[in-house]
Every structure is written in C-alpha cells, then in structure tokens.
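Supplementary Methods, section 5.1.

A reviewer requested that the exact input to the structure prediction be made available. We therefore reproduce it here, unchanged from the version used in the analyses.
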Amino acid sequence: MHVSATVDLASVDTGNADRDAHARASDLLDVEKRPTMTYRSTRVSGEGEGGSMEGELTIGDVTRPVTFAVEFGGLVDVPMDGSRHAGFEATGEIRRSDFGLDFTPGLLGDVVKIQLDMQFVEPKAA
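The structure derived from this sequence is encoded token-by-token as follows.
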C-alpha cells in the first residue's frame, strides 16, 4: 500500500485568522510561489495497531524524507452503502529550515509537528 496526499497551503488553519494570513504571506509559506505541499509514501509497515510510513514531503521545489508514526483507529462498516472505512492517525515532525521556510528563526520554532487524520474506504464488493 502506498499513500499520497496534496495539501493546498492556502487552507492552513491555526485557529487564528491573523496568524493564518501571516502564515500564507511571502515571508513564511508564500502560497503564491508554493501553493501545495505533497507527500508520497515509499514504505508503509506495521504490526498490531501501530506502524510507520516513510516517504517524501515536497514543499515548493524542496523534497525531503519524512517518517510518520501511524496508529490504527478502527474499522466501521457503513450499512447505507455496504462500504468499510478504516481510520488511521499519522504523526511526525519536520524542520522548517529543511524546506527553506526560515522566517525569523528566533521568533518561531524550527520544528513543526504534523498530524494527519486519514480514512480509507473499501467499496462494497460487487
């Protein structure tokens, strides 16, 4: 199994509208030049209810390896359409400086925590 995801960086939501606007500006994320962030897994492994997902994160023209710890959240069968949903949470960290996002190093921390809440859907068997 491989995972890929693209995030529209203009959708960044920190819970504070002023901070969000600043995060999108040219001195931080610069969403005009770097509109998306893309992750592609290269290896997914697990045992029991945990595991890891290794892959490459691209922000703008910079790509770096990133590994996420993954936890299985559970399975749900949806009676309305017969599909099965599997939930997972993935957590990891990046350094802003690794991606050229080095605005005011003394003001903002270099380490950014990332949390992904994922849901995979298995369609109803034909």
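The mean pLDDT is 89. These observations are discussed further in the main text.
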